[in-house]
Design a protein that fits this description.
By secondary structure, this protein is of the alpha/beta class. The chain is built from eight helices and seven strands. It has a seven-stranded parallel beta sheet, sandwiched between helices. Bound molecules: nicotinamide-adenine-dinucleotide (NAD). Keywords: NAD, Oxidoreductase.
């Protein structure tokens, strides 16, 4: 029960890594606000969990006014805000000359700017309470390039360095900030790769552990970073990728 009496906000909490983390936070005692644009999945999740201990707010995180309000409403509902998990994200394919500027703007808004706006709303609340914890979902796609993943690579790379900047700016205020860098995780986001013949096999070949990770495995890493077990961990970029980025790419 590492999160007894704690309050957590999870963006993109209705599905995949976010939903697994909501379940784990709640199982370990937290009150959790799920912030997501998918109303059906969001309500289904909060219905599944204990009445009154979880709450769903429908919000498109690319709407900064709505996102800042969702963070403040979460605080007001439960009287505190201890943990912010910035996890909502989308991907898109397209090399630079072919990428629609609107798609670029959307990916940057959802994957990067939402992290800034949620932190902008949360940090004053955490600071006033003497501290808090922020975990940002980046990706191994923020550490190196993927062919044709232009906007996603840019956004996730920025989330990684923004995490470091946040960590040093707010360390003396008792606020820890870390990033999760998942590799290939079996969620609806990667379901599209499963439908593209051969793509998943190529990805799996590049993973020394030979399999995709699960949302539950990511939730355990997030819970560690969000808990007092990680009390001296801030500014860390936590890779959880089955070894995918550990090698040089040279074949076995
Ligand atoms: P997912 O699609 O299962 O979950 C993403 C959630 O974000 C969904 O509930 C969706 O409704 C929500 N969301 C998307 N856009 C939103 C918006 N504008 N406003 C509010 N909510 C929005 O995917 P996932 O794999 O669990 O992804 C979670 C995070 O993990 C993302 O940031 C993603 O980039 C990152 N990630 C995933 C993988 C992977 O292989 N699955 C790898 C690296 C990083």
């Amino acid at each position: 029960m590492r999160f007894q009496d704690k309050v957590a906000v999870v963006t993109g909490g209705a599905s995949g890594i976010g939903a697994a983390t909501v379940r784990l936070f709640a199982a370990e005692g937290a009150k959790v606000v799920v912030v997501d644009m998918n109303e059906g999945l969001g309500h289904a999740l909060t219905d599944e969990l204990d009445e009154g201990r979880t709450h769903f707010i429908r919000c498109d995180v690319s709407d900064r006014v709505a996102l800042e309000a969702a963070v403040k409403d979460s605080h007001d509902r439960y009287g505190r805000l201890d943990i912010l998990f910035n996890n909502a994200g989308i991907g898109c394919f397209g090399k630079t000359p072919d990428l629609d500027p609107e798609v670029w703007e959307k990916v940057i808004a959802v994957d990067l700017s939402s992290v800034f706006y949620a932190c902008r709303a949360a940090i004053p609340l955490m600071r006033a309470a003497g501290g808090g914890v922020i975990v940002n979902t980046a990706s191994i796609s923020g550490l190196a390039g993927d062919y044709g993943f232009t906007a996603y690579n840019a956004a996730k790379g920025a989330v990684i360095n923004y995490t470091r900047a946040l960590a040093i700016d707010h360390a003396r205020e008792g606020i820890r900030v870390n990033a999760l860098c998942p590799g290939l995780i079996d969620t609806p986001l990667t379901a599209v790769a499963k439908q593209m013949s051969g793509v998943l096999d190529v990805w799996l070949e590049g993973i020394p552990m030979g399999r995709a990770g699960t949302p539950e495995e990511m939730a355990k890493v997030v819970a560690f970073l969000a808990s007092d077990d990680a009390s001296y961990v801030t500014g860390a970029i936590m890779i959880a990728d089955g070894g995918a980025t550990a090698g040089t790419g040279q074949p076995d």
